Amino acid sequence: MIIEDGFWNTVKKKYSIYLVLIGLFIICSMANPNFLSVNNLTNICRQLSVTTILAFGATMLIISGMLDLSAGSVLALSGVFAVTAFQSTGSLLVAIFIGILTGVICNVINAVMISTFKAPPFIATLAMLAMARGVALLFTKGQNILQLGDFVVLGQGSIGIIPIPIIFLIGIAILTWYILNHTRFGRSLYAVGGNEEASIASGINVHKVKYTAFIINGIFVGLAGVLFMSRVNAGLPNGAINYEFTALTAAIIGGTSFSGGVGTAGGTLAGAFIVGFLDNIMNLSNVDSYMQQIIRGAIIALAVIYDIQAKNRRSNKILGSIEDRTVDKK
Amino acid sequence: MIIKHKAIYSFVFARNFFWGKEMEENIKLRISQIEKSFPGVKALDKVDFTVKKGSVHVLCGENGAGKSTLMKIINGIYQPDSGQIYIDEKPVQINNPMQARKLGISMIFQEMNYVPEMTVEENIFLGNLPVNRFGKVNWKEVRRRTKELLQVENLSYSPTTLLKDLTVSDIQMLEIIKAISYMSDIIIMDEPTSAITLREVDKLFAKIRELKARGVSIIYISHKLDEIFQIADEITVFRDGKVVESHPIEELDMEKVITLMVGRKLTNTYPKEQIECGEDLLQVENLNSTNVYHNINFHLRKGEILGFAGLMGAGRTEVMRSLFGLDPIVSGMIKIKGKKVTIKNVRQSIDNGMIMLSEDRRRYGIIPMRSVRENVTLSSLGKVFYGFRLHKKVEEDIVSDLLKRMNVKTPSMETPIASLSGGNQQKVVLAKWVTRDADILILDEPTRGIDVGAKFEIYKLITNLVKEGRAVIMVSSELPELIGMCDRIYVMAKGTITGELDREDFSQELIMKYATGILNTKIVK
Q1: Is the ipTM value over 0.95, yes or no?
Q2: Of the candidates A172, A154, A140, A155, which has an alpha carbon nearest to the alpha carbon of residue A92?
């Protein structure tokens, strides 16, 4: 005798994050008339585009049991190199390529430390955070590179009414979703993060998975660097400080679990928008910026606690309960 | 007044007369009308159950019959939906394991959770460290008592050995020692002998008898009927969350118990078919590790089920792990289908057609939070991911076919595998390897902790696999299973092979002689 989960229970479990997103959207719309304007909404999207691209890389890494604290620094380094490349060659394509290449190289170094030398990801990427920032500052001699000319079209331009950064964002969101759900690599990410030893014993090439995850992360971070510098119209070696934390926040609120093996692209996107809406409504309501920081921190805490409680409730219900009883063997 | 007293005395006498038997025999634990449901499942249905002082009460039943759930309720891990528990005939509330321990209840689990970086002494005194007034731990005392316990139990490792350096059997032994050291009145043992070998089982039973004499009540969950009949005073059979019947041991025999458990008579326990064995699929020559095993020489033929018997510490698992590429080989040669192969990692082994089912399912077998479906296809991703995409229908077909063939009980293939019972998890892990289509299957304790019905299904599966022309190596500590299923058995002792037996020469005694090293026909001069 099996009692199937009710309709609403299933909806709650799988889609709770989206319900929160929609709920928040409604609340914000009612709280402030300026929220719903096209201008405001496009601004929200523009502002979260860079960190959300980072968040997708973070999501893949966290699912596989790792993380990247260096994202902000590597972003800055990639951006600075890209800007310099643009200034010397005049080619946007070369600039993007250099930016991505930088991101990839830094992340391959991360992978070497973490996968080959078994350094804990926290420590290794913390080291890269410092090193990348140092290289950026050294390279620019601490100076900002100004007046980029056509370079800004990437960050400030639009195709029709849709800003270009958002097009990149949507592209990367779809790519991440596809990778996680439709590729062998994506499936392996979940396995490695869920139980690395069992993955090895099942024949998964864990080194390859980890390197690939970092390389993809590197591509995303490099691209984010190009977009960021383009938006601010400057090569800022000190830019994007703490961006990795915003990225992590979006991933965590979106349901990516630090214990590994759990997370989705859609969830991360929803998490990013939840943070984006909250930031925006606080700005529109003239909340003090320090207060905003406190609130943001509190939200991360609540999101994590909720996630863990939800997991415990789920596992208490099913622990050992499904013992030789079937509905059908499908 | 005299009349009133007489009335009272008569009443008490009458009450004692009707309930006297039970009251006289000192019930330690009484479970009354316990019910427990989980979403979609009624795990316990009006269960009544009593355990006497100083007795061993065995619980039998298929996986999922409700035994573990009831034990978890007694241990305070779950709360019953309704019903009452009485200890010494006093109603109690057991809200958590700490409370259970204070009430004198201790439990040893089937699936052991342990912290690999912890030391033996830390584990034994977990939650029970001797502290002074200010909370400072008296490590000297811990060290001293641990050493004592290890000595008394004749165990060779030291108090500072890390748990990750111990085998599954060692850790289980430690759990038993721990429970004993808590001086509990009620000790619950959930499949305690599933990971220990014959020698240890004898020691365990001796200990149980000792505890019985002291008045301790032991609730013992096990599938091993031969063991049960050695140790039980009473047997209760569970089926589908209900108590089927409870009897003192004298009123039962093995067949009757099996019938009660499954509701059907099992005639042939081992589906053994005589299959013509072909040429050698695997040849292992002079395999040596640094210090765990040496001089390993054996061969495996097509269509053969090859057994590896031995006591704890003999090195069987270590040999298999090296063959599979999990651990490095120091020297030796491996030939698969006549061709020499190098196996430096798991992928190389799998690519050569050889797979292994680990004895530690939780650590090496399953990805707990992922679905049954993902676990089944984990080692055969190439079959469902190709052409740059996931072929969902192909995967669902492969998985549903296997789940059906192996009779895996799960609400759906999307269920997280951690929710399944141990036996069904094992079937899923086996399904994973069956999907891989390997020629050589190394199975390390494939039926550990699994009920009679599921065991039979796994034996049938093994028979079918070798009928298809594959070969199976079965490492097991259950002699009846080895004797029932294998064509040949190698026996290992102290890191080397001491004997090789053909099916017509199988005998428990002979195998034990090789396993203890008394006999050794493989001595290299």
Answers
A1: no
A2: A154
